[in-house]
Design brief:
Number of strands: 27
Number of helices: 16
Oligomer: single chain
Strand content: 15-25%
Largest sheet: 6 strands, antiparallel
Strand order of the largest sheet: 4-3-13-12-9-10
Length: 460
């Protein structure tokens, strides 16, 4: 396991604590051999798919495992024929003190912590695979990714919609050393709740109505590679223990099957929810959260690193598929981009530019080429059309009675807040309500009051 300490933008370097271990054989046929491992679970036995394969006929094929938990290290017997012993005592499951000896069959082993603390400094690069950013917050993210990607550590990427979570997960996969096998994507929020177990773990023919043939789940499809679990916060609570079991045991059982299949999969997950809050609210299992957040990376919203917009614009325009010869943006557009809040983050910036390119008459994107809704948010247009802007900027507010001015401000605030909220969550009322800590019915009532559709446009 691993932990990252300190926060983005802190004065001190961030530290990546790699929780590793070393198992050494002190007696038996493998005496003198030592294995350095950074997995959370270390399997011991005679079969070749174990992390530690022993040459001892008294050891079972899958004899025991050493599990790193947040509270300590557990030695667990896996139903072996000859048992697992600590001294003269046969054990089924026990916490290991550092450098404690234990015996499997006729082989004596010792587990020793070999933790490593790595200082994570901001990257010297302004790019990481397809990600771009020269700001301090982005270079700090790149510094963590550079350290984490070559390992097998499970990574949880969090951040608002459109910040580039999938891009970060793909970058981790690409920088694996050596590069792993397939990259398989599973969207936990898009799958039908009745079929999500089958999608994750697979099913056998006849397991349920409509299962006319056996099917691999995404864990099997990702064997030897990386499984990206998108929107992990949407995973139903009743399936979370099953996912946890797969992450711990590295085995899957298809729906309708009694057979378990071993899988070698690196898991990276992403969410736009605060999973700590979800854990506190009882909607997400704490043990699954800790298993997924071995390393947790928070991607910043675009409004927190607007200094990267120029670099991002150049990158997006240069890589656009349908570019009629545009090389940049006009000063007016640059001013608009820097003042806009970008509720959809980098994804929204990319969409705006790609939609604007076909409407450009010259080498630069001008205001006329931008979507009308975005043009209306330019500094000049806002002063003319935004009631909140008019009231707050100038003497208009002082020309009204106190009560009227207060009501106007509240109305303007509600309307602008709702427009930003609905746009940020793609018109999804349930997600918007959760983000605003409001009841869904209250959001719907306010939308109706202000004449705002789910698309975020005005119905007036």
């Amino acid at each position: 396991m691993a932990e990252i300490t300190t926060t983005l933008g802190s004065a001190r370097p961030r530290q990546l604590h790699l929780r590793r271990g070393r198992i050494t054989c002190v007696s038996g046929n493998n005496s003198g051999q030592s294995w350095l491992v950074n997995r959370d679970i270390i399997r011991v036995g005679t079969q070749g798919d174990n992390d530690i394969t022993l040459n001892d006929s008294t050891v079972s094929r899958h004899h025991a495992e050493v599990v790193r938990e947040r509270d300590g290290v557990i030695l667990r017997d896996l139903g072996s024929t000859n048992g697992t012993f600590m001294g003269p005592v046969k054990v089924r499951e026990v916490y290991l003190a550092p450098d404690t000896r234990f015996k499997v069959g006729q082989t004596e082993l010792v587990f020793s912590p070999a933790d490593q603390v790595i200082e994570v400094l901001p990257s010297s690069e302004d790019r990481f695979e397809g990600m771009v950013g020269a700001s301090m917050v982005m270079r700090e993210v790149f510094g963590i990714l550079e350290r984490v990607a070559p390992t097998d550590l499970t990574v949880l990427v969090s951040g608002e919609t459109g910040t580039g979570k999938e891009l970060a997960c793909r970058a981790i996969h690409k920088r694996s050393v050596p590069e792993r096998g397939p990259f398989v994507v599973f969207d936990c929020g898009a799958a039908s709740e009745s079929l999500i177990e089958s999608e994750l773990f697979g099913h056998e023919r006849g397991a349920f109505t409509g299962a006319v043939a056996a099917r691999h789940g995404v864990f099997e499809l990702a064997h030897g590679g990386t499984l990206f679990l998108d929107e992990i916060g949407e995973l139903p609570l009743n399936l979370q223990p099953k996912l946890l079991r797969v992450l711990e045991q590295r085995e899957v059982r298809r729906v309708g099957s009694g057979r378990v299949r071993s899988v070698d999969v690196r898991v990276v997950a992403a969410t736009n929810r605060d999973l700590r809050e979800e854990v506190d609210a009882g909607r997400f299992r704490p043990d699954l959260y800790y298993r997924l957040a071995v390393v947790e990376i928070q991607l910043p919203p675009l409004r927190d690193h607007v200094e990267d917009i120029s670099l991002l614009v150049d990158h997006i325009i240069r890589n656009a598929k349908h570019n009629p010869g545009v090389v940049g943006i006009s000063p007016e557009v640059a001013l608009l981009f820097e003042s806009y809040r970008w509720p959809g983050n980098v994804r929204e910036l990319a969409n705006v530019l790609e939609r604007s390119l076909p409407f450009c008459d010259g080498p630069r994107v001008t205001l006329d080429a931008l979507p009308e809704a975005l043009r209306a948010s330019s500094p000049v247009a806002k002063q003319r059309s935004d009631p909140l802007g008019r009231l707050m900027d100038g003497r208009a507010i002082g020309q009204l009675p106190f009560k009227d001015a207060k009501e106007c401000l509240i109305e303007a605030f509600e309307r602008q807040y709702l427009l930003d909220l609905i746009e940020r969550h793609g018109g999804n009322i349930s997600k918007a309500a959760r983000a605003a800590h409001m009841d869904r019915k209250s959001i719907s009532r306010l939308l109706k009051k202000h004449g705002i559709s789910r698309s975020g446009s005005s119905t007036e």
